[in-house]
């Protein structure tokens, strides 16, 4: 029998005994650390294993879904079903393995640590206490004087009792030590042996399972070899057929169209035609037409039920249409309606007309009627439908010069073509300083962006940004998504350098290191701290008020604006002079005047622009504050078209819908309208600005943009869901204001939006974007407002003439 500490030495309490105790106690302390670490690692392994089982089960369910999807292929369905069943068995085996691991390692070793080691620690405490008492008794017994007999007897009795107690507790302590040293070997080996037997059973079960599946897998492998050979043969046949067809002459393929009245499937002729809609916009849509069963029908998708255009071809006629602008048109007319169609070429038109006429004649022969179809039908002449706008005299005068269907839309198409043929969104955005690498981790060539922050991101950081929620970051792909022109301009006015100067202002002071590419957990913590908690924003770096010279210039401009507005009548429009040719933002990037900004001549508040002279108040809060609060900073920067300062204000906690009580509760979005910048409005909207929040006069951003004649902003607000039916304190809605100001472009946009809204409500298409023509017109206006804003200023020049 091997003992860690000798009982005899215990009674002597010799230095050898104390040295042995010290060695054993150190060994037990280290053993406890090792066992705690092993238990924690076991727990982590079990948790990871359970997560693996969950993921494996999801993968197995995916295989089963694929098997059900392949129900028409017996080989694939049977194979995938067998494999998914085998994987399910393996998942069950894994689950049993982790349960046994938990019992053998975690539970058993934890019990050893909590029970046996706890008893050892309790015995150690008692031993140390009685040892100290013994030392005190020995010292007291040695110090007592011989002439004091009473003290000598007392000291002797205490020493005797203490020695007796020490020997008893010391022997118990030594016994606990020796039992622990003996037991720990069996406990550790027992738990590990149980763990290894669990693995042995797991692998035996897996081996047996796949041994049974082996013959089937072997047969499937042989069958797969045959399938590969068959696939290669089919590929060669298809390549040969492809080559044969490719050698055919398709230059005049449309002239070889044939129609077969006696076709087995009843389809005489089929193909694509453009059909003019019967709605107010007269839009043209491409549909798949066919002549079958004595009817003319069309489909948008293959699975859709065919829409019948003509129920009985005997009661209709077909004719050419040369009185409309589109080429290759023909019309199928019945007694109740007409259908205007367009082919892709003249030969196709002739083929369709001949097919319809032949089908009409055939239908009459089948019914035993020899009369001509033209004797029974009434030919309805084609008449075009033009969309008319308000008939006020001022509007009719301006329509001739500035109708969106002529000048405005043509220029919009030019700008759209220019954008499509120019640089891509990726190239344009990456040209901005700092945008060539990820804003958060520095990875080169980022392909994603946060549109409300104006930064570029790598794919991993973009996923973390998505997890923050759209109220913090709105992620979009620079290569896969389509980009509106105003949004692209917004990205070009900010950039990684500008945003990082705000959101990483204190990174170096705090000693925080930016995460490197590939450090997922570090990235998550850093991005959350940067954008959600805003830990690195310098809370005291709030921009101060403008210098005295700027204040004097602003005050002078305000006075000039008051004088100019006081001379206007109630229906007179506010005229804005041309904007300067080049501006520069805080990032040092120069921008030309075609950035979508519609200028206003002076710095005044949105409400003072329309107030009577007697009711206007000086904007002291706008000019004289030495340290602006974030809301007021955002309010000022919105008018100044300074996106970096706006981003700084939002980083400092500014409310994007902050209302200035000193300026009739005007909002930053209203100030952006007054400043005339389309990009500033887009930035506020992307960051949650309420497009329908109104001031005390009941005027929202759409009202102010209409009064100022900012067509691009009107188009933007309508696209963002602005309520055009809202009225101000004078009872005027935006359309009434636009009609009084004789602004044809804005009247056009408002009426189109209202008509589209009514059509969607009548057809029950809530949440739908609307008619294609409506979308095209608004898209053209957006392109023009961003790329050619000077063409939209045509209204101010024309209004001066009238």
From TrEMBL:
Q: Which InterPro entries match?
A: ACAP1/2/3-like, AH/BAR_dom_sf, Ankyrin_rpt, Ankyrin_rpt-contain_sf, ARFGAP/RecO, ArfGAP_dom, ArfGAP_dom_sf, BAR_dom
Location of region: Disordered: 564-604
Which parts of the sequence belong to the PH domain? 266-361
Q: Using the record for this protein, list the coiled-coil segments as residue ranges, or answer none.
A: 117-147, 217-248
- Name the keywords, alphabetized: ANK repeat, Cell membrane, Coiled coil, Endosome, GTPase activation, Membrane, Metal-binding, Repeat, Zinc, Zinc-finger
| Intracellular or extracellular location(s) | Cell membrane; Endosome membrane
- Topology within the bilayer: Peripheral membrane protein
Q: Does the keyword Cytoplasm apply?
A: no
List the SMART domains hit by this protein, alphabetically: ANK, ArfGap, PH
Under the heading Pfam families, the entry gives: Ank_2, ArfGap, BAR_3, PH
* ANK repeat residue intervals: 664-696, 697-729
Keyword check for Lipid metabolism, yes or no.
no
Q: How is its activity regulated?
A: GAP activity stimulated by phosphatidylinositol 4,5-bisphosphate (PIP2) and phosphatidic acid.
Q: Which residues form the Arf-GAP domain?
A: 423-544
Ranges of compositional bias, category Polar residues: 578-593
PANTHER family according to UniProt: ARF-GAP WITH COILED-COIL, ANK REPEAT AND PH DOMAIN-CONTAINING PROTEIN 2, CENTAURIN/ARF
Q: What does this protein do?
A: GTPase-activating protein for the ADP ribosylation factor family.
Annotated domain remarks: The BAR domain mediates homodimerization, it can neither bind membrane nor impart curvature, but instead requires the neighboring PH domain to achieve these functions. PH domain binds phospholipids including phosphatidic acid, phosphatidylinositol 3-phosphate, phosphatidylinositol 3,5-bisphosphate (PIP2) and phosphatidylinositol 3,4,5-trisphosphate (PIP3). May mediate protein binding to PIP2 or PIP3 containing membranes.
The protein's name: Arf-GAP with coiled-coil, ANK repeat and PH domain-containing protein
From which organism does this entry originate? Vulpes vulpes (Red fox)
């Amino acid at each position: 029998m091997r003992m860690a500490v000798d009982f005899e030495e215990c009674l002597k309490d010799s230095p050898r005994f104390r040295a042995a105790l010290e060695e054993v106690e150190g060994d037990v302390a280290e053993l406890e650390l090792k066992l705690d670490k092993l238990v924690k690692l076991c727990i982590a392994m079990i948790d990871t294993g359970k997560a693996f089982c969950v993921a494996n089960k999801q993968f197995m369910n995916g295989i089963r879904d694929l098997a059900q999807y392949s129900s028409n292929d017996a080989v694939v369905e049977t194979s995938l079903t067998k494999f998914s069943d085998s994987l399910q068995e393996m998942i069950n085996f894994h689950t049993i393995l982790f349960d046994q691991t938990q019992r053998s390692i975690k539970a058993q070793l934890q019990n050893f640590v909590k029970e046996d080691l706890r008893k050892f620690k309790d015995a150690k405490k008692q031993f140390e206490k009685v040892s100290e008492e013994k030392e005190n008794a020995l010292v007291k017994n040695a110090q007592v004087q011989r002439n004091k007999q009473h003290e000598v007897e007392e000291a002797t009795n205490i020493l005797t009792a203490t020695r007796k107690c020490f020997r008893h507790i010391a022997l118990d302590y030594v016994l606990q030590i020796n039992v622990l040293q003996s037991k720990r070997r069996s406990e550790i080996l027992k738990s590990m042996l149980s763990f290894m037997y669990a693995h042995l059973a797991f692998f035996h079960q897996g081996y047996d399972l796949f041994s049974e599946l082996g013959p089937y897998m072997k047969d499937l492998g042989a069958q797969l070899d045959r399938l590969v050979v068959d696939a290669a043969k089919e590929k060669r046949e298809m390549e040969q057929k492809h080559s044969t067809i490719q050698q055919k002459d398709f230059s005049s393929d449309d002239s070889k169209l044939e129609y077969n009245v006696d076709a087995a499937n009843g389809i005489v002729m089929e193909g694509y035609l453009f059909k003019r809609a019967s709605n107010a916009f007269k839009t043209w849509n491409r549909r798949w037409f066919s002549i079958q069963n004595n009817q003319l029908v069309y489909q948008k998708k293959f699975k859709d039920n065919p829409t019948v255009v003509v129920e009985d071809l005997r009661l209709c006629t077909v004719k050419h249409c040369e009185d409309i602008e589109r080429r290759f048109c023909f019309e199928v007319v019945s007694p109740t309606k007409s259908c205007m169609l367009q082919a892709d070429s003249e030969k196709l038109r002739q083929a369709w007309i001949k097919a319809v006429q032949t089908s009409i004649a055939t239908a009459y022969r089948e019914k035993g009627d020899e009369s001509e179809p033209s004797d029974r039908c009434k030919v309805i002449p084609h008449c075009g439908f033009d969309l008319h706008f308000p008939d006020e005299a001022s509007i009719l005068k301006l329509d001739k010069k500035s109708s969106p269907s002529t000048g405005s839309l043509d220029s919009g198409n030019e700008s759209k073509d220019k954008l499509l043929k120019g640089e891509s969104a990726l190239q344009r955005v990456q040209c901005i300083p700092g945008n060539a690498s990820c804003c958060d981790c520095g990875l080169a060539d980022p392909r994603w962006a946060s549109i409300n922050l104006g930064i570029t991101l790598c794919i991993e950081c973009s996923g973390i940004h998505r997890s923050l929620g759209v109220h913090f970051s709105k992620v979009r792909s620079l290569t896969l998504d389509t980009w509106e022109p105003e949004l692209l301009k917004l990205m070009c006015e900010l950039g990684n350098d500008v945003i990082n100067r705000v959101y990483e202002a204190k990174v170096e002071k705090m000693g925080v290191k930016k995460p490197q590419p590939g450090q997922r957990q570090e990235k998550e913590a850093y991005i959350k701290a940067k954008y959600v908690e805003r830990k690195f924003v310098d809370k005291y770096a709030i921009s101060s008020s403008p210098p005295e010279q700027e204040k004097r210039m602003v005050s002078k401009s305000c006075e000039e604006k008051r004088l100019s507005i006081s001379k206007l009548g109630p229906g007179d429009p506010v005229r804005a002079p041309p904007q300067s040719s080049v501006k520069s933002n805080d990032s040092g990037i120069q921008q030309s005047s075609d950035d979508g900004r519609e200028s206003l001549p002076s710095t005044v508040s949105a409400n003072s622009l329309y107030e009577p002279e007697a009711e206007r108040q000086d904007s002291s809060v706008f000019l004289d504050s030495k340290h602006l609060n974030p809301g007021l900073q955002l309010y000022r920067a919105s008018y100044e078209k300074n996106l970096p300062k706006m981003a700084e204000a939002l980083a400092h906690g500014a409310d994007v819908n902050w209302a200035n009580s000193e300026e009739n509760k005007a909002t930053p979005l209203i100030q952006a309208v007054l400043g005339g910048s389309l990009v500033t409005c887009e930035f506020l909207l992307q960051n949650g600005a309420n497009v329908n929040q109104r001031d005390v006069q009941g005027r929202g951003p759409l009202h102010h943009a209409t009064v100022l004649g900012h067509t691009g902003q009107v188009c933007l607000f309508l696209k963002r869901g602005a309520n055009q039916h809202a009225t101000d304190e004078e009872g005027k809605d935006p359309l009434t204001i636009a009609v009084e100001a004789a602004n044809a472009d804005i009247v056009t946009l408002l009426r189109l939006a209202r008509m589209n809204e009514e059509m969607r409500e009548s057809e029950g298409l809530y949440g739908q974007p609307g008619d294609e023509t409506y979308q095209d017109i608004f898209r053209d206006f957006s392109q023009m407002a961003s790329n050619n804003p000077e063409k939209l200023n045509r209204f101010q020049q024309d209004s001066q003439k009238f």
